[in-house]
Write a structure and sequence with these properties.
alpha/beta; TIM Barrel; 7 helices; globular
């Protein structure tokens, strides 16, 4: 029996020498969306995935995009991203990176896309609580943003418990991003995580093919964890 959470592939970990093949293979394997990490070298100390990478995947893919903007003042250039995306795609911003995040969130929603916020490990839930009322999705960073293959920060688990409680009142979906292995999915999916971003820990660079990995994740048995 398949589980109901959704899976999104972290495309910064894909093989860029064969990007079209990667998109088609992941779609055929049953991935639910493509996670796109945009980094500007200022908000985080790295550059990853450009506007043009995102636009190419949006044009090639038949499933939604899940775009994570790790950039300063995203509202200054938000139209560049919105113009390349499609209705139903998701766009996350970091509230710390924007003077007026609610205005940026409204602009995303007005274009027919799902607005979301990303919460860093060091960001308190209290500082973003009001934004939770106006977004569709919340991306919880289990590692510090900016690089793949980082170590899981255990204290994020407490933050997830807070967000699960708030979700009952505010109606948003909760997505896990960073160091996402099978152990994390087994532990947190039964507690209410709606989706998981899969990167090098579980999906890319593994011996098994994408279809085998995705099928095995979807068919995990959580019966012994449910009350």
């Amino acid at each position: 029996m398949e589980n109901k959470f959704f899976l999104t592939a972290s495309m910064m970990c894909a093989d860029y020498g064969h990007l079209e093949d990667e998109v088609k293979s992941l779609e055929a394997a049953g991935i639910d969306s493509f996670h796109i990490d945009i980094m500007d070298g200022r908000y985080v100390n790295n550059f990853a995935m450009s506007l043009y990478d995102m636009a190419y995947i949006a044009k090639t893919a038949t499933i939604p995009l899940d775009v994570h903007l790790m950039i300063e003042h995203p509202r200054n250039n938000i139209d560049l991203f919105l113009d390349s995306l499609r209705k139903g795609d998701t766009l996350y911003i970091h509230t710390e990176a924007e003077y007026h995040p609610s205005a940026t969130i409204k602009k995303i929603r007005d274009r027919g896309m799902h607005p979301g916020i990303a919460i860093n490990p060091g960001t308190s839930v209290e500082t973003v609580k009001e934004m939770l009322r106006i977004v569709d999705r919340v991306l919880v960073m289990a590692v510090n943003p900016g690089n793949a293959s980082q170590m899981f920060l255990p204290f994020v688990g407490e933050k997830i418990e807070q967000l699960i409680t708030l979700r009952e009142k505010m109606d948003f979906k909760l997505i896990w991003d960073g160091a996402c292995g099978a152990d994390k999915i087994r532990k947190y999916a039964p507690h209410g995580i709606d989706g998981f971003v899969l990167g090098t820990t579980l999906l890319f660079g593994q011996k098994a093919d994408y279809a085998t990995i995705i099928k095995s994740v979807r068919e995990m048995d959580f019966g012994y964890l449910k009350k």
